[in-house]
Amino acid sequence: MQEILLSLLAGLICGMIFTALKLPLPAPPVLPGVIGIFGVFLGMKVYQFAVANWPF
Predict the structure, then answer these.
(1) Among positive and negative, which fits the CA dihedral 6, 19, 23, 27?
(2) For FRET with 44, which of 11, 20, 34, 36 sits at 20 to 30 Å CA-CA?
(3) Exposed e or buried b for every residue in 31-55, given b needs 16+ CB within 10 A?
(4) Residues 12, 2: contact at Cβ < 8 Å?
(5) Kindly report the CA angle at 11 between 10 and 13, in degrees rounded to 5?
(6) How many CA atoms does the CB half-sphere of 9 hold within 13 Å?
(7) Residues 13, 21: contact at Cβ < 8 Å?
């Protein structure tokens, strides 16, 4: 839970700094982009699970 809160805090600070400097956000500003990032994370977890549990 602490990692999640620290990630949220880092994201908030990053978003404030980028907005204050009038720079584009370093993350997709729309829901499909966020879902894509989640998909990449989920793909990593599926691969790790498969490698750990599949008899190669």
Answers:
(1) positive
(2) 11
(3) eeeeeeeeeeeeeeeeeeeeeeeee
(4) no
(5) 65
(6) 6
(7) no
Q: At 20, is the pLDDT very low, low, confident or very high (cuts 50, 70, 90)? A: very high
d(CA 13, CA 6): 11
Residue type, 53: N
One DSSP character per residue, 1-49 reads -HHHHHHHHHHHHHHHHHHHTT---SS--SHHHHHHHHHHHHHHHHHHH
